[in-house]
Amino acid sequence: MYQGLLHAHSGLRWLVLVALIYAIYQSVTGKKSGKKFADAKMAGTLAVASIHLQFLLGLAIYFQSPWYKMLKEMGASMMSDSVARFYAVEHPIMMLIAVLVATIGNAKAKKASTDAAAFQKRLVWFTITLIVIFIAIPWPFRFANAGWF
Ligand code: HEM
Fold first, then answer.
1. Which of 67, 95, 132 to mutate for ligand 1's pocket (most ligand atoms within 8 Å of CB)?
2. Is 143 helix (H, G, I), strand (E, B) or coil?
3. How far is the C-alpha of 109 from the C-alpha of 38, rounded, in Å?
4. What secondary structure letter does DSSP report for 141?
5. pLDDT single digits (tens) 83-121
6. Contact 7/149 with Cβ under 8 angstroms?
7. Which atom of ligand 1 approaches the CA of 148 most closely?
8. pLDDT value of position 121
9. Residue 41, class by beta-carbon neighbours within 10 Å (0-12 exposed, 13-18 middle, 19+ buried)?
10. Distance between CA atoms of 133 and 58, rounded to whole angstroms?
11. Cα–Cα distance between 48 and 110 in angstroms, integer?
12. What's the CA gap between 140 and 118, in Å, rounded?
């Protein structure tokens, strides 16, 4: 069960990244070409929905994870282990920040008074989201236990 959820969580990162990059790309081209934001809203909704889904999956695995168990058993002393600290504390907190930034940014874009302002807001807030997510992902080149899928 845990391994299955972990695989789903690992694979879903690609959907999150592609959806975010596509919405950012569409914001740049939409702004340049003077497109209507209403016609490009779906990309933002999809990106936010995929991040929310990923967040829920993350929560579902977190409380079954060995990292949470370590945190419960060892308390603050596990913080000296950089890998355990990353999975138990840094990864969830940074991803929570990413979820908030994406959600707020998408809402602000939808409420913007002009199409150009809407694209600009989505561009800025989603780019911040992408950077935070990219830093907070346990990439295999940083963590020996992590995979690509
Ligand atoms: C957009 C949000 C998120 C993304 C893109 C993301 C992505 C990932 C990726 C790629 C992995 C590595 C999987 C592997 O080892 O192959 C991972 C692991 C993990 N994630 Fe997330 N995650 C997100 C949010 C969360 C949240 C909110 C939590 C907890 C509340 C969470 C908890 C975990 C845990 C505990 C692991 C490690 C599991 C293990 O190695 O046993 N994730 N995440």
1. 95
2. coil
3. 10
4. T
5. 999 999 999 999 999 999 999 999 999 999 999 999 999
6. yes
7. 16
8. 98
9. middle
10. 13
11. 13
12. 36
Which one-letter amino acid corresponds to residue 14?
Answer: W
Domains and CATH numbers, the chain: 2-136 (1.20.120)
Q: How far is CA 42 from CA 27, 37, 64, in A?
A: 12, 9, 34
Which residue puts its alpha carbon closest to atom 9 of ligand 1? 10
**Per residue in 31-70, pLDDT tens?**
999 999 999 999 999 999 999 999 999 999 999 999 999 9
> Among 100, 95, 21, 98, which residue's Cα sits nearest to residue 61?
95
The residue with tokens 């236990």 is 145
pTM over 0.85: yes
The Cα 130–Cα 113 span in angstroms is: 25
